[in-house]
Each structure stands twice: as structure tokens, then as C-alpha cells.
Amino acid sequence: MMFLDFVRSAFGALDKHIIQTILLRSWNIIAGGITLILIPFTLRPDVAGYYFTFGSLLLIQVFFELGLSSVIVVRSAQFLSGGGAGAEHHAPDLSRLSGMVMFLQRYYLAMALMFLAIAWGSGWFFFARAESSSAIDWTIPWGLTSLFTAANLYLSFKLALEEGAGAVAAIARLRRLQSIVGHVGFWATLLLHQSLYAAIWIPMVSCLMTSFHVFRKDSVFRRARAQGSTSVAAFSWLKEIFPLQWKVALSWSAGYLIFQLYTPFVFNKFGPAAAGKVGLSLAVFNAVLTLSQSVVSASSPRYVAMVTRRDFSTLNHQFVRHAAISFFCVCMAVLSLMLGHVVASLYFPFFSVRLVDAASMAAIGVSTIVNSMVLSMATYLRAFGDEPMLWSSLVGAMATPLLIWLGSGFGLTGIFVAVAAWGLAVGLPWAACLFRGAWRSTAQPGLVTP
What we know:
Layout: H1 2-11, H2 16-42, H3 45-58, H4 62-65, H5 68-81, E1 83-84, E2 87-88, H6 94-128, H7 139-164, H8 168-191, H9 201-214, H10 220-228, H11 237-260, H12 262-270, H13 272-292, H14 294-298, H15 300-309, H16 312-347, H17 349-352, H18 358-382, H19 390-407, H20 411-441
Antiparallel strand pairs: 1-2
Helix pairs in contact: 1-16, 2-8, 2-13, 3-13, 5-7, 5-11, 5-15, 6-7, 6-10, 7-8, 7-9, 8-9, 11-19, 12-13, 13-16, 13-18, 15-16, 16-18, 18-20, 19-20
């Protein structure tokens, strides 16, 4: 009875923003499942290795975006809710928002162009060294996928403005529609046996649909531009953005090493076929991680607003309910995946051999649960306008390449067991200590500086 009461209470915290985000993440789970079924039938193991390595290499965009989108969500939420860095307001500060938008346009254009140049160059160097490169048509797919990814990088700040303004549900709907259309094109291209050309679809559709959305008349971007034609408050990147961005930038860059280094490393050491197994397995668990974070991440702008209003009681109450839902979902999903892997190995061996072995799957599952807990705590802490998990992320980023290298001596399983052990022994306890300190400080509001 107590469990049922808890479930009713927890799920009573779901509003339209959370529901839309969950729908988006749920669709991504479904799309990932369909992709998981199609890839073994439409891509050879070595080609699948190229496909998943494409995705990992393109995520070097975090070194150019430098975590700014998460800062934009925080700052725009503060400006539009009557608060801001180093100042207090009682009405939306559109002039400061306009100043920020003018800066962001220049910054993101420069970063997108730099990303495109480096992605093209590094991608060609990386893939051209593979023994099978001459037998696989990867050059045009890589070039076009990089181009559309760069365009999406430029447009990303405009979506972050919308989320900071509270339009989380609308952006989730947009992304769900982008994902549906993009995946349909992706699957059709796979079924037509066009190999890596399928990779172009999702970033291309995202680019086109985002462009249409952010240039509509009522977008936050257009309103900020209109405000800029009348009055623009002086905007200082050094004061408004840098105090939070440098920490988030280092944290996100560390996140690339922690989450995305596996597939390129395996591609280089064990070959494209092994990279395909790792990429496919990680894609499934990353989808689970993303879905489990839906409730917490969708509430991030509201957490910021609560901190701005110093409503810590409501903040803590809602976060506990959201985090409990997240933890329950990730645990159930990981257990389901493990059971599914056992069933597939018994009755569908053709499918299971395209994934890593059961021991590796179990290790990845443990890491997924740990990462879900850490990410929930990080979202709570960032609502205070800080990045207290910076040093733990940097230490993890430095340890991960070493763990992967050492673990690789024992095969793929050794890699994932080593990383899971680090998360349990170091990553999770460190994050819990930081979270506990922030939680206790909310009981003494005088210690909190939003």
C-alpha cells in the first residue's frame, strides 16, 4: 500500500513539460529498438563500426559548444523570470536577453565553422587509416553528416533560449517530430541498402525543421532581436556567462572522454566489427539513460526559477520525487535489457552476436545506473548557477582513457568492468558528497547564493 501511495505521489509530479520530454525519450527508445533490429540485417559488421564511430567522432562538437547551451537555459530563465547573474529584477529583463542573443549569434557561427573544418579533416585522417577504408563508401556520407551537424550546432542556442523561456514541452514536441521524420528516412535508406548514406538523414532533418521553428514570429530569438532594435543592455560574457560556462565546458569536455571514447578506441584497436558491437550496445544503454533523465532534465528551468525565488522547500520536494522516478525507470530498463540479452542469446543468436557479451552488458548496465544517479544530482546542483562536479568530472575524464587502455588487455569485457568499478568506487560517492552539501545548505538559505 505504501508503495502504491508513493507511485501515485511521484507520478503526480508530471506536468506537460515532463510528459512531452518523456514522449520524446520514449520515441527515441522505440526508434533505437527498430534501428537495433535493422542494423544487423542491413549493415555488415565492419560498416556498422563506421556508422557508430561517425557518431562518436561528431560529438567532438562539445569542445566547440563548450557547454554553453546549458548556461543559456539557466541565464535566459533568470532574465525572463526576473533574476540574473549579480542582479535582482522584478520583471523580465528583455534588454539583457537581447544583448546575450547578439553575442550568441557571433559565437555559435564561429564555433560551427571551426567544428566543420576540424571534423572534416580529423574524420578523413581517422577513417582513411582503417584497412577496410578502400572497400567502404564513407567519404560523401561523412562530409554531408558533418556539414548538417555543424549547422545544428549553430542553431542549438536558439532552442536553448526557448527552453529557458519555459517552452520545454514545445521543444520536446519539435525534437520528437524531427526524430520521427529523420528515423523514417534513415530506415528507408538502410532498407534500400544505401549503407552509410543513411547517417545523413537525422542531422539533415533536424537542421531543416529547427530552422523553420526558430525563425517563426513568436520565437524567443525573434523577440530578442526585435528588442535589440529598440534597446540593448550591455552584456558582458565575462560576467554573465564565463563564471558558469568555464566549469560546464570542462565538465562537458570531460563527459566526451567518459562516454564517447569507447567506440573510436575499439575501432582503432579491435577493428570496425568490434566497434560495431560496442556502438550498438552503448546506443541501447544510452537511450535508457536519456529516458531515465527525462523527468529531471525537463524540470531544470523550473529548478532554476525556484532557486531564483529561494523557494528551496518546493525545489527539494519536487527533486526528490523526480529523482525517484528516474532511478526506478533506469533500474527496470537495465534489468529488462539484461533479460532480453539472455533470451536473444538462446533463441536469436544471429541478433545477440552483434552485441557485446553478457558480462560486458552487465557492466555497462551498472555504469548506466550510476551515471543516471550522478546526472540527476548534477542537474540539481546546476540550478544554483554552479558546476560543483567539475573536479570529479575532470578526474573521471583523466581516469577513463587509462581504464579503457588497461581494461582492453582483458578484451572488451575488461574495458567495461574497469569503468563500472570506477563509477561505483569513486564517481558515485564523490557526487553524493557534493549533493549532500548543497542539500544541507538549502536548510540554511543564508548560505545559498543563486
